[in-house]
Amino acid sequence: MSPTAVTTPLRDYRGRFAPSPSGPLHFGSLVAAVGSYLDAKANQGKWLVRIEDIDTTRVIKNADSDILNTLQAYALYWDESIIYQTQRLPLYQDITHSLLKQNLVYGCTCTRKKIKAIGGIYQGHCKALNHNTQSSALRLAQQHPTTQFNDLIQGNVEVDSALAHEDYLIKRSDGLFAYQLVVVVDDIDQGINRIVRGADLIEPTARQISLFKQLNSPVPEFAHLPLAVTKPGFKLSKQNYAPAISQQNPKPALVSAFKFLGLPVIADLIDLNIEQLIDWGIKNFSLKQVPQASEIQISQHPTS
Ligand code: GLU
Ligand code: ZN
């Protein structure tokens, strides 16, 4: 018998891409879309798309349909109906109620400024103060601090202990449910068992793992892709107006995303159409080829 390790594909793989509709897709979000898609399809899995519009203050009108059109232009087709978080508030409300009933959630009136002044990590100030839970922000009483986890690309990730133990916000003072809560509730509800996304979300992963445990759900596998940056520490993002990727001419950006993800791109690819390119990507993708880096510097115009 060969001693070579055989990797067993995840059974009934369910992955997802979860863009926030705060602007058009840029090269950084394309990398997350392509990476999550190829990994799902290389494992005969399902790939779901969820529009993360919970933070309505950041939503840009029609960005959702623009993102979906772009995904289709890149032949990234989703397997089940699209979910919008703003249509699922009763679900988040139910989970919050049940945590409240178990005394696992409490009201907090600390301002962001106050928490910043004590070093950025909330220290439990309001835990015993019995604030009104209707009108104040809500924090989860942390029962499952996660101090390290395994990432399929980044390896063993150590988490700052104070961060791991923090009673973090699940509902904001403006009444909106926090990303940390809804992302986990949705991943559980959609049966997601592997999450492939950008390394900017490594830090929140520890909090999310705690919440999967708190909600008695299996913790998915995580694979955090390197972030595309224009200079160290500067990720491409909708907030810093990273250019939108082309819907009319998707091949150059797709091939650049393949290269970024460590695929063995060859010259002949240029003759393939977009569907054939994606098929080639599925056949040739492996998480093992993805560079184990939290960021990779690209030129301003990664598609040229
Ligand atoms: N909606 C998040 C974003 O666009 C991604 C969340 C996730 O993949 O867990 O940054
Ligand atoms: Zn407080």
Overview of this protein structure:
The longest helix is centred in the N-terminal third of the chain and has 16 residues, at 27-42. Mean pLDDT is 93; it is low at 1-6. This protein has one domain: Rossmann fold. The strands form five sheets. It has a three-stranded parallel β-sheet. Strands 4-5-8 form a three-stranded antiparallel β-sheet. It has nine helices and 13 strands. It has helices at residues 27-42, 63-73, 89-101, 112-117, 161-165, 179-189, 202-214, 251-260, 274-284; strands spanning 14-17, 46-51, 83-84, 105-108, 137-140, 148-151, 155-158, 169-171, 194-198, 221-225, 227-231, 234-235, 295-297. Bound molecules: glutamic acid (GLU) and zinc ion.
Helices, strands, pairings?
Elements: E1 14-17, H1 27-42, E2 46-51, H2 63-73, E3 83-84, H3 89-101, E4 105-108, H4 112-117, E5 137-140, E6 148-151, E7 155-158, H5 161-165, E8 169-171, H6 179-189, E9 194-198, H7 202-214, E10 221-225, E11 227-231, E12 234-235, H8 251-260, H9 274-284, E13 295-297
Parallel strand pairs: 1-2, 2-3, 9-10, 11-13
Antiparallel strand pairs: 4-5, 5-8, 6-7, 11-12
Helix pairs in contact: 1-8, 1-9, 6-7
- Encode the helix/strand succession as letters: EHEHEHEHEEEHEHEHEEEHHE
CATH architecture: 3-Layer(aba) Sandwich
Extract low-pLDDT stretches: 1-6
Overall pLDDT = 93
Give the CATH level 1 class.
Alpha Beta
Instruction: Write down the Rg.
Output: 20 Å
The outline comes out as elongated
Strand arrangement in the largest pleated sheet: 1-2-3
- Helices and strands: which structural class? alpha/beta
Number of domains: 1
Bound molecules: glutamic acid, zinc ion
- Please indicate the percent range of residues in DSSP E strands (runs of 2 or more): 15-25%
Q: Compute the separation of the termini in Å.
A: 46 Å
